[in-house]
Amino acid sequence: MLKEEKILQALGFDLPVTCLDVTDSTNLRLKERCRAGDRRVQLLCADSQTAGRGRLGRTFLSPEGTGIYMSLLLPLPEDGLPLTIRAAVAVCRTVEEVCGLSLKIKWVNDLFLQGKKVCGILAEGVENMAVLGIGLNVNMPENGFPGVPVAGALNTDADRETLMGRIAFHVLKTLEERPDSCLSFYRERMLLLGKDITFLQSGQEKNARVMGVDDKGGLMVQTEAGMEILRTGEVSIGSHQVSCLE
User: Fold this and answer.
1) Rounded CA gap, 227 and 210, in Å?
2) Which of 37, 51, 87, 220 could form a disulfide with 24 if both were Cys (CB 3.0 to 4.6 A apart)?
3) Model pLDDT, residue 118
4) Which helix (DSSP H) or strand (DSSP E) does residue 180 occupy?
5) Per-residue pLDDT reduced to its tens digit, 127-174
């Protein structure tokens, strides 16, 4: 069972924290609280989820005892830098600090270790607030992640409460940080910089080369038609190529 006091100890300051044994989705539960009038900045964690979700309606497998499934209720950033950019930076900083591991970021919010996806991030708006969900595979489940060959784990001895507390700490700190500081860190850890990718635009698949991230977190890509900035959407690269990226 997750212990709230251990999370608060790692966090280093007082914050409403709730730990559940199992829930459908920590994001859904926090959105429900917010709509019911509880709009405090707060953290909700679960030992497992039965309906964990990722971007674009995808399922996020959340087996018991092996991962971090947490959501924060936060004010919306006012400077235009996406919350998912900040969260990716926060998780990378935490994993480096606690585990000594260096993650790479696949735009916009997937984190990779040695060619395997270990973390997904989902930000959703509710009642002029934001719910930020973070799923991090800490250790590999006994049966792995069936049907998801790209999924991996940190495979670390670090306890999950420490990681949860430090992630929350770093997320909240990035809200006070200058956008250029977050972006500098983000750019240094980009997985696909200089790589050829495909993306969908108006239902049409296009090829491009990743050139960087602009000051608002948009992906800068070079296409046959010239430079384009992607604000939303999905970019892809062959799984065999991802596995070769460091």
Assistant:
1) 10
2) 51
3) 96
4) helix 179-188
5) 999 999 999 999 998 887 877 888 999 999 999 999 999 999 999 999
Phi, psi angle pair for 60, to nearest 5°: -115, 110
CB-facing half-sphere around the CA of 71: CA atoms within 13 A: 31
Give residue 240's pLDDT.
42
Q: Is residue 117 scored above 80 in pLDDT?
A: yes
Q: Please report the pLDDT score of residue 3 as a whole number.
A: 95
Cα 59 from Cα 109, distance rounded (Å): 15
Ordered alpha helix ranges (H), 100-176: 160-174
Mean pLDDT, the chain, integer: 90
Structure token digits, residue 7: 């999370």
Name 129's bridge partners: 75, 126
Span 56-74, average pLDDT: 79
Burial bucket for residue 135 (CB in 10 Å: 0-12, 13-18, 19+): buried
User: How far is C-alpha 150 from the geometric centre of its chain's CA atoms?
Assistant: 16
In the chain, beta strands by DSSP E:
17-23, 42-49, 67-75, 104-106, 110-113, 116-126, 129-137, 196-201, 204-213, 219-223, 226-230, 235-236
| 20: confidence class by pLDDT, cuts 50, 70, 90 | very high
Phi-psi region of 10 (alpha: psi -120 to 50; beta: other; left: phi over 0): alpha
**DSSP annotation string for 89-110:** HHHHHHHHHHH----EEETTTE
Q: How far lies 100's CA from each of 94, 96, 152, in Å?
A: 9, 4, 17
Q: Rounded to two decimals, what is the model's pTM? A: 0.92
Angle at alpha carbon of residue 30, lines to 219 and 112, rounded to 5°: 35
